[in-house]
């Protein structure tokens, strides 16, 4: 009987240790790290904008990387992505998978070297300018792994079917 009394605490400790390890593995699998920052989807009426990555800092597998790139006007000037054509005042939507942390999403219009933050409606929507022309924007978000930005261009065209 004394042998069982001595083994019982060791047995209980082993069970608790193994249970704790398995719970830790379950928690890790529910949070999936991304190797790179997620790309945004900028959409209007089923069409999407071409986005170009800008500066970011990102952690993956215990390693951090920061890429400091030129400002969005220079990045767009080099990459020359095709603009998303929209009507004046169109309501654009930005989504990410997975979504950024609460209230970290920003959208800004660039006029020359001036960055003008846009008012977001419903947390992820904003209105295109009313005047026809080409407009440069960038969108930024933060996640538990870091933060990232993407630039894109829209072309506001007169009200007509696009």
Main β-sheet, in a few words? 7 strands, mixed
What's the mean pLDDT score? 86
Protein structure class: alpha+beta
Question: In the residues, how many domains can be counted?
Answer: 2
How does this model look, in words?
The strands form 2 sheets. Strands 3, 4, 5, 7, 8, 10 and 11 form a 7-stranded mixed β-sheet that branches. The chain has a 4-stranded antiparallel β-sheet with strand order 2-1-6-9, with no helix packed on it. The protein is globular. Helix content is 23%, strand content 39%. The protein is an alpha+beta fold and 162 residues long.
Main attributes?
alpha+beta; 7-stranded mixed β-sheet; globular; Lipoprotein
Brief write-up:
This is Lipoprotein. The chain is an alpha+beta fold.
List the helices and strands and how they pair.
Blueprint: H1 2-30, E1 41-44, E2 47-48, E3 52-60, E4 63-67, H2 72-79, E5 84-86, E6 91-95, E7 106-111, E8 114-117, E9 125-127, E10 133-143, E11 146-156
Parallel strand pairs: 5-11
Antiparallel strand pairs: 1-2, 1-6, 3-4, 3-11, 6-9, 7-8, 7-10, 10-11
Protein name: Lipoprotein
């Amino acid at each position: 009987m004394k042998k069982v009394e001595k083994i019982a605490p060791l047995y209980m400790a082993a069970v608790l240790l193994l249970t704790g390890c398995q719970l830790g593995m379950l928690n890790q699998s529910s949070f999936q790290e991304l190797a790179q920052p997620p790309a945004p989807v900028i959409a209007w009426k089923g069409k999407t904008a071409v986005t170009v990555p800008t500066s970011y800092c990102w952690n993956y597998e215990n390693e951090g990387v920061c890429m400091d790139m030129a400002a969005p006007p220079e990045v767009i000037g080099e990459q020359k992505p095709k603009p998303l054509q929209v009507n004046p005042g169109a309501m654009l939507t930005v989504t990410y998978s997975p979504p950024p942390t609460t209230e970290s999403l920003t959208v800004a219009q660039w006029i020359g070297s001036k960055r003008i933050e846009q008012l977001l409606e419903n947390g992820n929507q904003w209105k295109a300018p009313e005047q026809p022309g080409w407009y440069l924007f960038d969108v930024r978000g933060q996640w538990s792994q870091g933060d990232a930005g993407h630039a894109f261009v829209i072309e506001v065209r007169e009200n007509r079917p696009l």
